[in-house]
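Tip: read the tokens left to right.
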């Protein structure tokens, strides 16, 4: 599989690779707009002329003849917000000609893209009577642009009941007409919808787009956008599970969909076009649940477009990826975006009632209210491995609940397959495998129980020949403990694109999130071949976590319109909670029994109400990020592909970005390391005068010093700086160690400004 691929963070069972004629290929070309000759009326005219010039110089006569009649066939997109340049179908000769034209900066091939909730608002303690929901008026006034697979506009989540009549005057977008989509599909909630597929078509000119509009055919975009800002929907559920009033994290925010993902393919040029348009349209937040793996910042379309967004005050919230649990698998480790990991929710479904009166809460998502009542409970060692449908079918299991053993040699996934194929009346699986609980569907009437509950159930079945049991479906239990845990699949840092900034930033609910879905696609399965639709679906992935964080960012933007993207990110990072609901460190489902490190969950689970009033923020300007790029050794043209402007300088290169977290990477060959960080914090507390004292938890093997240990603020918006020094002595048994720095407000102040600290070997990326 190609290494340079954009990953949409929900499992997608296909990846279509398209090729044009061998003589041509689609390229993304960066140009220096400041060098555009005055003879051209617009950048588009300049780009088209550049392409015509390259064709004239082309030595491939057949291609020259073909294109000379209509030069616009080569041009796919022009960009003016997210980047300066264009996408075009070019031969190698034409590309070389363009490289020699005035204003050329860089070019690289178009890349393929891969795809990466009712209770979660309560789980995040959002309440309309206080805190962030109240302060932001539920996100009213904020516009969130969602870059995804489109939207199902008829979903109840996108109705505009209760929305104010006045759409913000900054909005410049539209509801683009297309197949099965017209202007009436937009309203005061869904204020815009556009679609971009020229990249897919350029990669395969003979293709037919099955749904040539902003209408969703995957369900991914409908799910993510309703999670960000869906309206109130009573009685929403997934076949009776998680039933309640569904709503987005920012239920009064406006939504705009930019469809860039297609059944026919997913390409970087389309993603760039969507982000370019979102910036131009005037969105406040961009939510993008996808990312590019193994690509440098100056060739990463999301990094490039998000820099332009950041310059205009637009925060880009992105997903970390679903490639866990290995370290160094994270994408979107972009210093100027918010990178979001996925965690579990304090919720489970279904229970098991034994004939002796014992009830065990378990987990099931069998998509029907099946009658599995007082069935015979059987534990038979001949079939208890549940790995053979043939063996199971030889027994009369129609009105029997089979207990399946918890075996190392047989996965629960295989047991699910065998019991489904054998059409057993019911099954009990014994497992705490997070893969099963977080992502697997349940096509057979069954329930999963924790191994600690198994002995008494097996004992009852073995001792009582008349043992019976009932499985209760369509039940929902909240407040389960411990929760959250970092999801097993969530990608981990350090960031391959730049490991010197700690990523991910935060964790948000991502496993089994209920949100709107398209009604004409399978949402669940019964048995081997019965597929069922649903208007709402439980999905898992960092794709689901990202829009939670995007929604919180929209609320913060509505409450604090003067905050920069860096300030919003800082508020979310420094107030995140590293503890679960048992007050113990959040666990890592990718490494059961271990605490989740900041490389897994960032600073911890987002806490929206605390983020409203963080006390101190770590701000950063566009020039600060440029200083980082300069210190990374990027060339002038590589930096220009990101910044699009020569107004920035490399006069003060620095790898020490003013970030709300710390990561020190050591060389394994060195026994010791000393790393210094300088940070500046801005007092955003309402009281003005404030005193903060540093409290440090040292990573194992390290001594962390802070100077000064006390920060005194005389007024609001005042800045104070400090230096952190990490002295590390290598421990052969240690790989990654972590601690924290907390600035604690004195004098009765409630603020605790927490920054995670990570010490890790540089070779893990």
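Filled-in amino acids:
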């Amino acid at each position: 599989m190609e290494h340079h691929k954009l990953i949409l963070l929900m499992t997608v069972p296909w990846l279509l690779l398209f090729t044009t004629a061998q003589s041509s290929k689609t390229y993304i070309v960066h140009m220096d707009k400041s060098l555009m000759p005055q003879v051209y009326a617009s950048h588009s005219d300049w780009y088209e002329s550049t392409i015509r010039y390259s064709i004239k110089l082309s030595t491939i006569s057949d291609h020259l003849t073909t294109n000379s009649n209509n030069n616009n066939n080569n041009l796919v997109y022009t960009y003016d917000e997210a980047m300066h340049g264009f996408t075009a179908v070019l031969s190698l000769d034409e590309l070389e000609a363009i490289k020699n034209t005035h204003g050329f900066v860089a070019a690289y091939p178009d890349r393929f893209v891969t795809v990466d909730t009712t209770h979660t608002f309560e789980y995040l303690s959002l309440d309309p009577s206080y805190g962030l929901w109240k302060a932001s008026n539920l996100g009213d006034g904020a516009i969130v642009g969602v870059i995804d697979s489109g939207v199902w506009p008829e979903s109840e989540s996108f109705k505009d009941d209760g929305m104010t009549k006045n759409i913000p005057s900054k909005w410049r977008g539209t509801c683009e007409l297309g197949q099965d989509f017209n202007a009436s599909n937009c309203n005061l909630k869904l204020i815009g919808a556009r679609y971009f597929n020229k990249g897919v078509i350029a990669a395969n000119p003979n293709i037919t787009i099955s749904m040539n509009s902003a209408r969703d055919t995957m369900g991914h975009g409908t799910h993510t956008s309703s999670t960000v800002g869906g309206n109130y929907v009573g009685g929403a559920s997934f076949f009776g599970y998680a039933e309640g009033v569904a709503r987005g994290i920012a239920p009064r925010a406006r939504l705009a969909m930019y469809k860039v993902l297609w059944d026919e393919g997913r390409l970087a040029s389309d993603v760039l076009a969507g982000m370019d348009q979102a910036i131009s349209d005037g969105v406040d937040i961009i939510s993008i649940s996808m990312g590019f793996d193994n690509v440098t910042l100056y060739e990463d379309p999301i990094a490039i477009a998000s820099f332009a967004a950041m310059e205009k005050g637009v925060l880009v919230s992105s997903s970390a990826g679903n490639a866990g649990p290995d370290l160094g698998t994270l994408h979107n480790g972009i210093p100027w975006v918010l990178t979001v990991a996925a965690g579990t929710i304090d919720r489970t479904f279904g229970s098991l009632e034994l004939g002796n009166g014992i009830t065990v809460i378990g987990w099931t998502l069998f998509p029907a209210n099946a009658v599995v009542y007082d069935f015979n409970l059987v534990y038979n060692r001949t079939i208890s491995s549940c790995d053979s449908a043939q063996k199971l079918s030889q027994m009369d299991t129609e009105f029997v609940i089979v207990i399946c053993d918890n075996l190392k040699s047989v996965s629960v996934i295989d047991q699910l397959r065998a019991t489904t194929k054998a059409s057993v009346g019911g099954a009990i699986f014994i497992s705490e495998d997070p893969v099963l609980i977080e992502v697997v569907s349940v096509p057979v009437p069954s329930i999963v129980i924790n191994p600690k509950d198994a002995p008494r159930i097996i004992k009852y079945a073995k001792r009582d020949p008349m043992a019976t049991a009932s499985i209760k479906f369509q039940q929902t239990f909240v407040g389960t403990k411990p929760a959250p845990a970092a999801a097993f699949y969530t990608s981990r840092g350090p960031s391959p694109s730049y490991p010197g900034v700690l990523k991910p930033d935060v964790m948000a609910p991502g496993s089994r999130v209920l949100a709107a879905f398209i009604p004409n696609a399978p949402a669940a399965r019964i048995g081997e071949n019965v597929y069922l639709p649903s208007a709402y679906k439980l999905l898992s992935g960092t794709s689901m976590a990202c829009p939670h964080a995007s929604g919180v960012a929209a609320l913060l933007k509505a409450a604090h319109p003067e905050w920069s993207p860096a300030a919003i990110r800082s508020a979310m990072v420094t107030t995140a909670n590293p503890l679960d609901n048992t007050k113990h460190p959040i666990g890592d489902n990718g490494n059961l029994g271990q605490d989740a490190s900041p490389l897994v969950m960032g600073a911890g689970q987002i806490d929206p109400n605390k983020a409203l009033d963080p006390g101190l923020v770590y701000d950063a300007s566009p020039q600060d990020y440029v200083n980082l790029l300069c210190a990374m050794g990027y060339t002038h043209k590589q930096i220009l592909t990101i910044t699009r402007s020569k107004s920035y300088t490399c006069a003060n290169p620095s790898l020490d970005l003013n970030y709300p977290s710390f990561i020190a990477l050591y060389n394994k060959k060195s026994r010791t390391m000393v790393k210094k960080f300088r940070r500046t914090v801005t007092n955003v507390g309402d009281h003005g005068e404030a005193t903060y004292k540093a409290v440090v938890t040292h990573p194992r093997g390290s001594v962390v010093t802070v100077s000064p240990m006390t920060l005194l603020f005389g007024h609001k918006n005042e800045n104070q700086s400090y230096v952190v020094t990490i002295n590390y002595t290598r421990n052969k048994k240690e790989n990654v160690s972590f601690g924290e720095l907390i600035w604690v407000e004195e004098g009765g102040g409630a603020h605790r400004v927490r920054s995670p600290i990570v010490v890790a070997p540089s070779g893990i990326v």
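The chain has four domains: 25-109, 140-345+491-578, 348-467, 616-620+657-761. Residues 348-467 form a domain with the Glucose Oxidase; domain 1 fold (CATH 3.50.30.30).
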